[in-house]
Amino acid sequence: MSEPRCVMICQHTSCLKNGSAEVLAAFKAREMAEVEVKPSLCLGQCSSGPTVRILPDEIWYCRVQPSDVPEIVEQHLQEGKPVQAKLNPRIHLRVEMFLSP
């Protein structure tokens, strides 16, 4: 049996200043079976918050706004496809980052 998913939303100082409390509320407002949504202490990505980390997938989203939550829920949590546009580039490196222009 697979590990249940957990959506952690940073609620530390800089993420809070950028609206992470509203992001947390938006995730909690969604009904998701077998997905735990909880606030987190600092996730160490202060310059790119609000930060959302999804376990056990180890997917990190950056600059998440409440308007991004439906797409993350539907595309990632329901369909299993991470939302590329919101991936934290410091954690999820892309090949294009290493190609010469």
Task: Compile the SSE list and pairings.
Layout: E1 5-10, H1 13-17, H2 20-29, E2 35-40, E3 52-55, E4 59-61, H3 69-78
Parallel strand pairs: 1-2
Antiparallel strand pairs: 1-3, 3-4
Protein name: Ferredoxin
Keywords: Iron, Iron-sulfur, Metal-binding
InterPro entries: Thioredoxin-like_sf
Helix content: 10-25%
- Which strand-content bin applies to the residues? 15-25%
Backbone CA Rg: 13 Å
Roughly what is the average pLDDT, rounded to an integer? Answer: 91
N- and C-termini, Cα separation: 45 Å
Q: Which term fits the overall shape?
A: globular
Sheet with most strands: 4 strands, mixed
3D architecture notes:
With 101 residues, the chain is of the alpha+beta class. Helices cover 25% and strands 19% of the residues. A four-stranded mixed β-sheet has the order 2-1-3-4, covered by helices on one side. This is Ferredoxin. It comes from Floridaenema evergladense BLCC-F167. InterPro entries: Thioredoxin-like_sf (IPR036249). It holds the Pfam family 2Fe-2S_thioredx. Keywords: Iron, Iron-sulfur, Metal-binding.
